[in-house]
Automatic annotation (TrEMBL):
PANTHER family: MALTODEXTRIN IMPORT ATP-BINDING PROTEIN MSMX, OSMOPROTECTIVE COMPOUNDS UPTAKE ATP-BINDING PROTEIN GGTA
Keyword Transport included in the entry's annotation: yes
Protein name stated in the entry: Spermidine/putrescine ABC transporter ATP-binding protein
GO CC terms of this entry: ATP-binding cassette (ABC) transporter complex, substrate-binding subunit-containing
Amino acid sequence: MSKIKMLQLSKQYDKQKDNVIHDFNLEIKDKEFIVFVGPSGCGKSTTLRMIAGLESISGGELWMDGELVNDIPPKDRDMAMVFQNYALFPHLTVFDNIAFGLKIRKVKRDIIKEKVEKTAEILELTSYLKRKPKELSGGQRQRVALGRAIVRDANLFLMDEPLSNLDAKLRVQMREEIINLHKRLGTTTIYVTHDQTEAMTMASRIVVLKDGHVQQIGTPKEIYNHPENMFVASFIGAPAMNFFKGKITTDQLTFSNGDRLGALPAVIDKQGEAVIGIRPEDIVLSNKETGIPLQVDFIEMLGSDLYVYGKLHGDSLVVRLRPDYEIETGETIYIEFAQHKFHLFDPVTEQSLLHREELKK
């Protein structure tokens, strides 16, 4: 069992400078798969290293299973870490790499053999146990790094961008393997990535970070459907959400110039200027009579999707369509918005103007 509670966690490297982590609050339940996601430099790996004990905690409290662990050394935190660069010993075989932590703890040789062989079977590494890391592919090396964590029977797995060194096809395969591994072992896992696709496909809950501040915590579905601010709305989802300037009247949305856009998606306790968000997949083709004209600047054909780029009242817009549409650069198409899919944000604070609980009814 592993339950974790972070209360007002902060990190400061230089007392003359601002914190790199600000008031991080999170409660993690047993067996959850939590993903920290955000751009480079947002503090996600630093937070993970504080949990691991590899970085000191400047402020706040870190609790594990009811015990305050701020000053507990890493070896006594009952967790295993998987690093981005695998961190394998090149002179040791796969067997000895996986067994290394157990040998350090002076576990009996027959128990080590049993644990390593069982772990190798789970990860389909049995036939590679006598090989050295240089004889393995990137995916196999990453499985060895996972094996070293699994064999520990730790209460907590910490994974710091473990797939970033793999090619696209291998990343998809390893994502699936890690998800299946989590289902099989049920070990509480905290996973760090800058890849929002990994976050959306792997997490039971996502923590979105920016500049050391938590922006939003929620399930992938909550984060995607009800982003709390413009940063989350733009970071989660590919292509990113479209934004353009508009106005809110009593029960209507309009463009900045007053042209009618549609009905409000919910009751809004604000009038006046707003930033309107719409995801590319929530825009559909229409006709000249009822649609909004969009001149096509360029297109991207990605096999399963067709991305059409243009400008709407001076703001860039991307539309995600089926690949069978015949659209050419330079032509004018006509579009409509799925009105219940509008997102509305305050132009100053960039916070959502929609109340999530209202939208879920």
